[in-house]
What we know:
Structural class: mainly alpha
CATH class of the largest domain: Mainly Alpha
Shape: elongated
Number of domains: 2
CATH topology of the largest domain: Four Helix Bundle (Hemerythrin (Met), subunit A)
Amino acid sequence: MNVAALSPERYARLILSTSRVPFLQVVKTSVAAVLAWLATAWLLEGQVPIFAVIAAILVVQPSVNQSFGKALERCVGVVIGVILAYGVGLVFGATSWVVLLAVIVALVLGWVLKLGPTSSVQIPISAMLVLSLGASTPGYAFNRILETIIGALIGVAVNLLIVPPVALQPVHESVARLGEEVAGILDSLARILRAPTTANDRTTMLLEARLLTPMRAKAAAALAAGEESLKYNPRRSVHRDLLDRDGELLTMLSVLVTRVVGMARGVVDHYDDELVGEPLVAEIVSELERASHDLRLVIRSANLPGTPAASSLPQAPVPDALPALTAPLTVAVPSSAHWVLLGFLLEDLRRIHEELVEATADLSEPPAG
């Protein structure tokens, strides 16, 4: 028997999260639960407002848009479950086996209607409770619907009115870090082409370049989460410009990632010791360094709030505050052994140049907020 497979640490990883929700959300959820209890107890005297509290807890989500969605899903699930319970009870009565039948029918109904997980689970729970408790409790079904609606509305209101959450900081950090890493790969390409290097150096550079692709995906996911957090958010006008700037930077960086990874792949595949002796290579090295300079200039001039991830990276100094990709490139005819690779690098540099020129043109227009 594998003792390690039974270790407590292994099972702890299954139940423990690597991150925690913000403490503010814990406070807001607690406030919503208390308000749901008090409001329901006042409106529905004699009822223990368990389901209102459950609805309020589930509805307070990391974004206002998600709160609306959870509230709607839970209310729909409760209403369908109650209607189903009444229908099944009316036809078959309120015997114990009918409860099991209602649960099965509710699960199938949720699947047929293609409902979300919250509604699909809520339907059988509501049907089961109505059939088991509603028969002996007058008005139970109606009160359950009303109670759930009250709790859901309070949960949405609390999330909407008390510091509505915005998920922008992860976007700023991921975009800034991606920009710094792309600039670092441009520097690595320049170093590889400046003087003879070992195969291990070139392979390491390629592996680092390939890591840009998952970083780009992570930044895109953070941007999508940021966009989602601003939906129906009363604070969206304050943060809209900053998020738009993040989106513009990520669009530019996406092009650069594709080009830089391709350049790294081409250099590794077609490198030989005579490559560094080509007159054109010195010009390409200079352009790579200029591109790295301008990219760092663009990222740092974007003034993304609180980006410790970017500032904590080892950063090459930016010697001046002006874009460097301005000098024309003198193209010498390369040898026949290298013209394909060098032409490939020149085309990628042209695309990188276009993206950076467009980005540096906007440096004098900082986003609002």
